[in-house]
Design brief:
β6 and β7 (204-211) form a beta hairpin. With 212 residues, the protein is α/β, with parallel strands linked by helices. α6 runs parallel beside α9 and α7 packs antiparallel against α8 (167-175). The chain contains nine helices and seven strands; from the N terminus they run αααβαβαββαβαααββ. The model has no long low-confidence stretch (mean pLDDT 93). Could be a S-adenosyl-L-methionine-dependent methyltransferase. It is an enzyme of class 2 (transferase). Pfam families: Methyltransf_23 (PF13489).
Length: 212
């Protein structure tokens, strides 16, 4: 359920905001256009929003400025502490993950950035089914994440990272569960969603899935 990567979340907590600002050369392209990516997710969000992997609250801030009701879901204790320090105690954030959560109010939109790849493809498919059960017709999933157009493109991405000497990035790409547009399309459609993808940079695609 992604919780096997909790140690990484804890390590990244203090440096995450600096990394997304482009200060780590290995991840500069991964986070290129970061603010624009968050804005695109926000623009497609409406109503009550479940935000998985709230992290340090960067997307949450934009969602709140739009006037949306946000319920944050974050498994990392360190990330939740930074989130609360940044946004205060008035915003609800709960310990949970993409498949395990306890939220009474149903969402109109489910969002996440840079996190869905922590699930295996089987877990991703299960997540789509769960979200289909809680979203009404017209409800949305809006995720921005590293996604590949094909398995070959994924393998080429690992090779490119190694060739550039980006050992940490290459290790991340190998260790975590990155998937492809065809695979995600199949999962989403099987759960009753119409899905589209918009490219944001060399790594990140914006996925918008609308419940039919």
């Amino acid at each position: 359920m992604g919780r096997e990567f909790l140690d990484i979340f804890e390590e990244w907590a203090d440096s995450y905001d600096e990394t997304v600002e482009g200060h780590d050369i290995q991840y500069k392209e991964v986070f290129r256009g970061y603010e624009s990516i968050l804005t695109k997710v926000t623009e497609r969000s409406e109503g009550t929003v479940w935000e998985f992997g709230s992290g340090t609250g960067n997307l949450t801030i934009k969602l709140l400025k739009k006037g949306l009701e946000v319920i944050g879901i974050e498994p990392s204790k360190e990330m939740r502490a930074i989130f609360t320090k940044k946004l205060g105690d008035s915003i609800q954030i709960t310990d949970g993950d993409f498949l395990s959560y306890n939220i009474e109010k149903k969402p109109d939109t489910i969002v996440s950035t840079y996190a869905f790849h922590h699930l295996t493809d089987d877990e991703k498919a299960l997540a789509f089914q769960q979200y289909s059960n809680v979203l009404s017709k017209g409800g949305k999933i809006v995720f921005a994440d590293t996604i590949y157009e094909s398995t070959e493109a994924y393998k080429a991405g690992i090779k490119d990272a190694k060739d550039q000497g980006f050992t940490d990035l290459a290790a991340d790409l190998i260790r975590e569960h990155y998937t492809t547009i065809p695979a995600l399309t199949k999962m989403a459609e099987a759960a009753g969603f119409n899905v589209t993808f918009t490219k944001c940079n060399s790594f990140v695609w914006l996925m918008e899935a609308i419940k039919q």
